[in-house]
Fold this protein.
Amino acid sequence: MSYSPNVLRWLNITRGLDSEYSEIHKFGTNEAVGTSFVPITRQGIYQVPIAATALELVSDDVNDTSAGTGAQTVTVIGLNSSWAEVSQTVTMNGTTAVALATDLIRVYRMYVATSGTYATQSAGSHAGNITLRVSGAGATWAQIHATDFPRGQTQIGVYTIPTGKTALLSLHYISVDSNKSGDLILFHRALADDVTTPYTGIMRAAFELVGVSGFVNLVDSAAPQGPFVGPCDIGFMGKVATGTGSMSVDFEMILYNT
């Protein structure tokens, strides 16, 4: 069996044989997209403040706690005030909020790190919806959903490339409710760390699909997008023609040192 050079590169990266590069897999879902463009994330938001922000984690179920049957610890991954990647693991305290040790300017992933339950098809690894928000019960930044079944991690179709990194993006698929017509745009904002006016970090469309319904496979449709130089916000926004509908996106990026 023979593979293309791109496939071989991906295989070497995932096997740890190409240390110059790293791989990021992103997928997002929004089950209530309306008629205005919103990010393809569970809450339809991706916070992009111009300064690092104090954050806290809280569940809506008391069993998500250090000795509980739900999520005991949760890992939050994002960028600090220097636009460098930071990973923090926080011990949960149920419905009482717990502060993160490091302020963050972006958050693009969080997941349950340890649980009091050995998960099965009938019992997940956390008991409630776990929310990351601004300290003091402020604005929501991200959420690990427990609706229908505990997801175990966020579903955020957006990423921010850290400073000192450059990325190439490979689109996998997008999906829109089969009984809806939807539009999706892949946006990027280079120079995200330019936080004084006049801003040079312009939000620009890199890819757009109009009037989509159902599943669209993009794996073999085009060469990788980019390069995108960090710090750079990049991700999908979508809307439907009428009412509300669900959308999902899936993409991967190869990161290398700038």
Observations:
- Residues 1-5 have pLDDT under 50 and may be disordered.
- The two ends are 34 Å apart (CA to CA).
- The helical segments are 5-14.
